[in-house]
Design a protein that fits this description.
Distance between the termini of chain A: 33 Å
Number of strands of chain A: 17
CATH topology of chain B: Rossmann fold
Strand content of chain B: 25-35%
CATH class of chain B: Alpha Beta
CATH superfamily of chain B: Class I glutamine amidotransferase (GATase) domain
Largest interface: A-B, 36 and 39 residues
Radius of gyration of chain A: 22 Å
Number of strands of chain B: 14
Shape of chain B: globular
Largest sheet of chain B: 6 strands, mixed
CATH superfamily of the largest domain in chain A: Mur-like, catalytic domain
Radius of gyration of chain B: 17 Å
Number of helices of chain B: 6
Distance between the termini of chain B: 49 Å
Number of helices of chain A: 15
Helix content of chain A: 25-40%
CATH architecture of the largest domain in chain A: 3-Layer(aba) Sandwich
Oligomer: heterodimer
Number of domains of chain B: 1
Largest sheet of chain A: 9 strands, mixed
Strand order of the largest sheet of chain A: 2-3-1-4-5-6-9-10-11
Structural class of chain B: alpha/beta
């Protein structure tokens, strides 16, 4: 009875929030329901016929989930699906409420959940997942999580509770992620890259994962793809990258538009076109392939599903405004920001940029991370035509660009994101592109604003 | 003029964007026609730190901090002393040192971790650090007497530490935390100063948006090296002041959860 009350109150709040534009209502209904019945999520999830898939890790959660969602669409499954960073217990519970009947029954058989790293133990205590994907670990919003080692330990504790019937998909190329594969009851499958052409020339700078998770000696890398992802081995104890069972044997990256990859799995090999740029999306695709195979989905449906993804919410999406193209790419940590910049600059055409940095809790309150992004690459002459800087911490961003050697004369600073966006757009001719790089809450604000201008759908309508 | 800057353990002690401090020292020297060289010092090598004008020592996660601690206690063959003693001799010699967070802690006498392990420090600061049971995370604004001529007399930054540092025997702090916790969340002190060695918990990065602090370090380094009183040429600091003021305003208005 308490469960029904929780479901009703949660759903009521959700409808009110939408009707009166009180915001997306993506978390509060769940928080409310959990206050009424703490076991709301556990009870609803026990009624799923096909169980739950969870995606966690620093980068790639939303995109991987979107790929899986599109794959499920191919086989006629419409899963419970938490959207747009609503990935704490409240947000996950909200997704279940949204997809529950008034009798407290889930309307679909399967849940596809993006889970915040720190929330994994709490969510996994309520929902025993059939498949878990761990994408990667990079420093992200350290002020929220404390330290990366602590985050890894949280995920480890959640995975340790899984039964042998669960499958855990781990990124073989990330030593922090692959270390999670030891001593689990669940079945472990690794995914990774096997294309020597994608190895980066330079060695990584950050110390996210320099040391052997086993004995503490420094890893030696025979290949680095980006960040600390690559082929590593500990010279002291021999702890090394596991051979991936699912891997991309050939990767052709075609600028900002797409990549063509050849995927090898224990069952089959196949090629697919990824309509998303950059190497990190290859990892996302491999994770989605692995999860879909674990759910028993056929290769053809997997290929079609992944090929139909053009971009996840805010992760590199295109919006046309009066003949001008706006490309928006979410930035939230140094590695992700560097990858976006590399991708942006890969075609050597001069770019018009807008960068928005907020420091709300969902962005990370500490803006120190901007100093770990290699903005120095923007200082090369002819690479950037103009930059507009905005957001709550526009000043910090402007200083970072100045010290990176950017041409300060071509920098415009406007703390008000609306007027900043208008003037950035005014500086772009029809047929040209404005590249907008916002942090999470800046992206939500800007999307809402562009929506009011009549150009994008509200995210809960997608 | 020429400055040799040593970035201590950049491969290990580099989380929270602390390398921005080295970038700021370099740029603000170069913009005034002072040449710079940055040497990246790492584990397992020996250095005579007296040869450097400025040494920067950033923060790290616990695991890396332990490795660095062991290295500082290890023997330096060149000098027939420990690595850490070489750095202490440099400070006695007037070298400019800036330690942030984990680096600051290791400049003190010891750090007792949450597990009760005692990591020995260099004893440059008459101060010690003990792990507390809550993490002090958030914006910090510090009022400091060190910048009488600057457009602002404050330092702004972001702290993220569970170690509580206590100064002893009248050791001077950098200033008083008017917002945030500072050294330990109890006595309002933030940072420590001994000769030309400075320690602080502030990330941010600290120096770029507190350019008067960067300039103080450059000035002291040049005075030690060239002997004369140095008057640095002034720079156009509009953006830096904008960043400082907006960080300061954010610190004052951000809603805080009761802890």
């Amino acid at each position: 009875m308490r469960l029904l009350l929780a479901v009703w109150m949660g759903k009521l709040y959700m409808h009110l929030a939408r009707a009166f534009h009180m915001g997306g209502g993506t978390s509060f209904p769940g928080i409310l329901a959990r206050k009424i019945e703490p076991a709301t999520l556990r009870k609803l999830s026990l009624r799923l016929k096909q169980g739950a898939v969870m995606v966690t890790g620093t980068n790639g959660k939303t995109t991987t989930n979107k790929m899986l969602n599109n794959i499920l669409k191919q086989v006629g499954i419409s899963p419970i699906y938490n959207l747009s960073g609503a990935n704490l217990p409240g947000g996950v519970t909200t997704a279940f409420l949204d997809h529950a009947t008034l009798m407290g029954r889930p309307k679909s058989d399967l849940a596809l959940l993006e889970i915040d790293e720190a929330a994994m133990p709490r969510v996994a205590a309520d929902v025993v997942p059939r498949v878990v994907i761990v994408t990667n670990f990079f420093r992200d919003q350290l002020d929220r999580y404390g330290e990366l080692d602590h985050t890894v330990a949280l995920i480890r504790s959640a995975l340790a509770t899984l039964p042998a019937s669960s499958t855990v998909l781990l990124n073989a190329d990330d030593p922090l992620v692959s270390s999670l594969g030891k001593d689990l009851a669940a079945q472990v499958i690794y995914f990774g890259l096997e294309d020597a052409r994608q190895e980066a020339g330079e060695k990584f700078q950050t110390a996210d994962a320099k040391f052997c998770t086993n004995c503490g000696a420094e890893y030696s890398y025979s290949a680095v793809y980006y960040g600390h992802l690559g082929k590593y081995r500990c010279p002291r104890c021999g702890n090394a990258r596991p051979d991936p069972q699912i891997y991309a044997s050939s990767i052709e990256i075609e600028g900002m538009q797409r990549s063509r990859i050849h995927v090898v799995t224990p069952q089959k090999q196949f090629s697919l076109t990824l309509n998303l740029p950059a190497l990190y999306n290859v990892y996302n695709a491999l994770a989605a392939v692995g999860a879909a195979l674990s759910l028993g989905i056929e290769v053809e449906a997997i290929r079609k599903g992944i090929e139909s993804v053009s971009s996840a919410f805010g992760r590199m999406e295109k919006i046309s405004i009066e003949g001008k193209e706006v490309v928006m790419a979410l930035v939230k940590n140094p590695t992700g920001f560097n990858e976006v910049l590399h991708t942006l600059l890969s075609d050597k055409q001069p770019k018009k940029l807008m960068i928005l940095i907020n420091d709300n809790p969902a962005d990370g309150e500490d803006v120190s991370w901007l100093w770990d992004v290699d903005f120095e690459m923007l200082a090369e002459p002819g690479i950037v035509e103009s930059t507009v800087v905005s957001g709550i911490r526009a000043g910090d961003m402007a200083v970072r660009l100045k010290y990176a050697g950017a041409d300060v004369g071509r920098l415009r600073i406007d703390g008000d994101f609306k007027s900043a966006f208008r003037s950035a757009l005014a500086g772009v001719n029809p047929g040209e592109t404005l590249y907008v790089l916002p942090t999470y809450t800046a992206m939500l604000d800007l999307r809402k604003f562009i929506h009011k201008m009549g150009y994008v759908k509200n995210f809960w309508e997608e | 003029m020429f400055l040799r800057i040593c970035h201590l353990y950049p491969d290990l002690m580099n989380i929270y964007g602390d390398r921005g401090n080295v970038i700021a020292l370099q740029k603000r020297s170069q913009w005034r026609g002072i040449e710079t060289e940055v040497i990246q010092a790492t584990v397992g090598r020996s250095y005579d730190f007296r040869q450097f004008d400025i040494v920067f020592f950033g923060g790290a996660q616990d695991k890396e901090q332990k490795l660095v601690c062991a290295d500082l206690q290890s023997a330096s063959q060149e000098l027939q002393t420990r690595q850490g003693d070489s750095l202490r001799m440099a400070v006695e010699d007037g070298a400019v040192v800036l330690g942030i967070c984990g680096g600051y802690q290791l400049l003190g006498e010891y750090f007792r971790t949450g597990e009760g392990e005692v990591l020995p420090g260099l004893g440059i600061f008459d101060a010690y650090t003990v792990a507390g049971n809550r993490r002090m995370i958030g914006d910090v604004v510090v009022e400091s007497p060190f910048f009488p001529g600057a457009p602002q007399k404050t330092l702004v930054g972001f702290e993220n530490h569970s170690g509580q540092t206590f100064l002893r025997n009248g050791l001077q702090p950098i200033g008083r935390a008017v917002i945030g916790n500072g050294n330990n969340g109890q006595d309002r002190f933030e940072g420590a100063v001994y000769k030309n060695a400075f320690g602080s918990y502030l990330h941010g990065s600290l120096l770029p948006k507190n350019p008067w602090f960067a300039d103080l370090l450059i000035e002291r380094a040049l005075e030690r090296k060239y002997g004369d009183k140095v008057e640095l040429a002034s720079l156009e600091d509009d953006l830096e002041i904008l960043a400082h003021d907006s960080a300061s305003k954010r610190a004052a208005t951000r809603p805080r959860l009761a802890t």
